[in-house]
From TrEMBL:
<comment type="function">
    <text>E2-like enzyme which forms an intermediate with UFM1 via a thioester linkage.</text>
</comment>
<dbReference type="GO" id="GO:1990592">
    <property type="term" value="P:protein K69-linked ufmylation"/>
</dbReference>
<dbReference type="Pfam" id="PF08694">
    <property type="entry name" value="UFC1"/>
</dbReference>
<keyword id="KW-0833">Ubl conjugation pathway</keyword>
<dbReference type="GO" id="GO:0061657">
    <property type="term" value="F:UFM1 conjugating enzyme activity"/>
</dbReference>
<feature type="active site" description="Glycyl thioester intermediate">
    <location>
        <position position="116"/>
    </location>
</feature>
<protein>
    <recommendedName>
        <fullName>Ubiquitin-fold modifier-conjugating enzyme 1</fullName>
    </recommendedName>
</protein>
<comment type="similarity">
    <text>Belongs to the ubiquitin-conjugating enzyme family. UFC1 subfamily.</text>
</comment>
<dbReference type="GO" id="GO:0005737">
    <property type="term" value="C:cytoplasm"/>
</dbReference>
<dbReference type="InterPro" id="IPR014806">
    <property type="entry name" value="Ufc1"/>
</dbReference>
<dbReference type="InterPro" id="IPR016135">
    <property type="entry name" value="UBQ-conjugating_enzyme/RWD"/>
</dbReference>
Length: 167
């Protein structure tokens, strides 16, 4: 069900040990440390394999996450805002990752720009909770979604390349 490349990616992302969500106060702090360690490992592995594709940061409490993700298609970089909240039932419930600017542009998306991960990702999360975390959600949820949906949206003319201005 999972290909060799995905297994390799997953094996390089540390699993979570602390079963805690935002309501668990002290344990949540420990879980957040694990989440950040896993994200850092995943991003470093992506950079080493020349497949860097997102940046994330969180609010002080670690309950709201936001950043950028991008997809390279025909040597053009398509960049999108990404955001999600940690559900109160986390880690037993996966976060719902949102790309607000793509809201309403594909059938594989819910209101508010939340990407559809019901068929493939959510059952996998359920089998692996509470060991899975944000890095796994990015690797197994958003990454594959971008790889399938963005080229299709580009081909249909729904997503157009925009030159990024120097900041």
């Amino acid at each position: 069900m999972v290909d060799a490349a995905t297994k390799k990616t997953l094996s390089s992302i540390p699993l979570m040990k602390t079963k805690a969500g935002p309501r668990d106060r002290d344990q949540w702090v420990e879980r957040l440390k694990e989440e950040y360690r896993a994200l850092i490992a995943y991003v470093e592995n992506n950079k080493q394999s020349d497949s860097d594709w997102f940046r994330l940061e969180s609010n002080k409490e670690g309950t709201r996450w936001f950043g950028k993700c991008w997809y390279i298609h025909e040597l053009l970089k398509y960049e999108f805002d990404v955001e999600f909240d940690i559900p109160v039932t986390y880690p037993m419930t996966a976060p719902e990752i949102s790309l607000p600017e793509l809201d309403g542009k594909t059938a594989k998306m819910y209101r508010g720009g939340k990407i559809c991960m019901t068929d493939h990702f959510k059952p996998l999360w359920s089998r692996n909770a509470p060991k899975f975390g944000i890095a796994q959600a990015m690797a197994l949820g958003l990454g594959p979604w971008l790889a399938v949906e963005i080229p299709d949206l580009i081909q249909k003319g729904v997503v157009k390349y925009q030159e990024k201005k120097a900041e």
